[in-house]
Amino acid sequence: MARTNNIALVFDFDLTLTKDYSQTPIFEFYNYVPRKFWGTTNKEYKRRIKKLEERPQVGIFGPRQTLCYETTYADVLVDFVQRGIFPGLTLDKLGELGSKIEFHPGVLEFFKESKELVKNNKRWKEYNIGLEFYVISCAIREMIAGSKIAEYLTGLFATEFIENEKGISLAIHKMSYTEKTKYLYQINKGPEFNENAYVPHHLRRITKKNINHIGDGQSDVPCSTTVRKMGGKRYGIIKPSNEEFFKEAPELKKEGRFDEIGPPDYRNGSKTRKFLDQIIVDDAERTADEIDLGKKVSKKLIRVQTAKK
Predict the structure, then answer these.
(1) Main-chain dihedrals φ then ψ at residue 201, nearest 5 degrees
(2) Percent share of the chain, pLDDT over 70
(3) Which of 21, 31, 157, 162 is 20 to 30 A distant from 124 in Cα terms?
(4) How many helices (H) and strands (E) does the chain have?
(5) Alpha helices per DSSP H over 195-270
(6) Residue 40 maps to a domain
(7) Distance (Å, rounded) from C-alpha 134 to C-alpha 157?
């Protein structure tokens, strides 16, 4: 796949784009109290930590540093299905429930209108500058794929399952905080290259500085930090109900983890919408300017070479 002049906006999913955790439709379908599920997940996470702490430590880091809460919930969900608490929760059912996920105000309009903004700009169109949306999330792939934003996505990386006759039976890909970062490099290089493969800059599908990240919490800091090193922009969605991040967000911005923070409102005129629109305009104009400069340099080299002859 050839190099493009495209811009990438990479989103976390739960609470960044959605009003509630994306697993909520599952609990509603089975009439199950969400607090009970997350309570079981917390208990299992603590049990695993205790087991890991019983193992011998090598060096200064113990085995518990290998554990991530987000990978634990996937195993608990499988256990609930296999024990009949969530009977018949298949991959297809997850996709169906994904259609019930609710998004923050303006999300769907932002995705649609931003694509049109780039597509209809005469200068950007001349240089084949496009806009791509990606999701990298610990949420469930089938649910995101079944949601209303799926049609706008160029790429989706999330937790994945396989199933048996009872429903989902094994989490074959569990997304952790740091696992998310490798997909930023996958976006940079393109689908035909492994994230660890060396790819010359001129062959990479999207230039690093055109990759931007939008997240909502501590779990997004590794991606945010990686995008900063790439040269892209980072935006933090802060929601008062997410108390821990609501308190931490200003400090994270001060530390340079995010370029800016704002409310979960993607409607026209909102702070969040203005910042994201500006990212798109800035990246597109810079890309067009670089192409213009490249053309001028090429013409100058041709003139010099012709003069030498």
Answers:
(1) -55, -40
(2) 90
(3) 157
(4) 11, 7
(5) 221-230, 243-254
(6) no
(7) 8
Structural domain range at position 135: 7-20+102-308
Q: Decide if pLDDT at 296 tops 80.
A: no
- CA-CA distance, 86 to 89, in Å (whole number)? 6
Q: Is 135:107 a contact under the CB 8 Å cutoff?
A: no
219: left (phi over 0), alpha (psi -120 to 50) or beta: alpha
Give the residue ranges of DSSP H helices in the chain: 24-29, 34-53, 69-82, 91-98, 107-120, 122-126, 141-145, 179-189, 221-230, 243-254, 271-308
CB 114 within 8 A of CB 268: no
Task: Give the Cα separation of 184 and 178 in Å (integer).
Answer: 11
Residue 133's CATH number: 3.40.50.1000
Exposed (0-12), middle (13-18) or buried (19+): which is 154, by Cβ within 10 Å? middle
pLDDT digits (tens, 9 = 90+) for 19-77: 999 999 999 999 999 999 999 999 999 999 888 888 887 777 766 666 778 889 999 99
Predicted pLDDT at 52 = 83
pLDDT tier for residue 238 given thresholds of 50, 70 and 90? confident
What phi, psi does 88 have (nearest 5°)? Answer: 70, 20
Condensed to tens digits (0 to 9), the pLDDT of residues 189-231 reads 999 888 788 888 888 999 999 999 999 877 888 999 999 999 9
- Token pair 């200064």 is found at 60
29 domain residue, yes or no: no
Tokens of 234: 């980072």
**How many structural domains are present in the chain?**
1
Let me know if residue 66 belongs to a domain.
no
Residue 253 lies in a domain: yes
